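I have a small job for you when you get a moment. Would you make up a two-line entry for one protein for me to read? No commentary is needed, just the two lines. Write everything out right here, beneath this request.
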Amino acid sequence: MRRFIGRSWHMMGLSGLFVFGRDRMLKLRGARIARGWTLADLGKRTGIAVPDLSVIERGLKPAYPEWRRRISRAFRLPLSALFDNSTPRMSAREARGRIEKILRRFLLATSQHERDQAWEDAKRVIAAARSPKKEAS
């Protein structure tokens, strides 16, 4: 069932769903590539492990505040030039769990109405996961 669900995500166009902040992290990758640095070079300059930098750069995990400062210092750029301060409303793990349940409902649906309802629920979860938390005024 798990393998089929993975294929279904791909068939439904949801395979890239759980990459939060991908567009935001392109700034970080662009700055690194513009300087001709590899992830290993950036790791040496910041003291952050290459696998962690890779995950941050791909937008799969947010950078800790201290790591953001180290990366910013390495590039000699302000934090705002490399990172967006907004965070998703829900974690990738939480969104993925909700989508898996909805996808099971979708696959086991016996009527078009049930499939349509599951699809609408999935779209709501996606929108909630991708939109940033509202800052308290």
Remarks:
- The helical segments are 2-11, 22-34, 39-46, 50-57, 65-75, 79-82, 92-108, 112-130.
- DSSP finds eight helices and no strands in the chain.
- The chain has two domains: 22-82, 87-137.
- Confidence is low (pLDDT under 50) at residues 1-21.
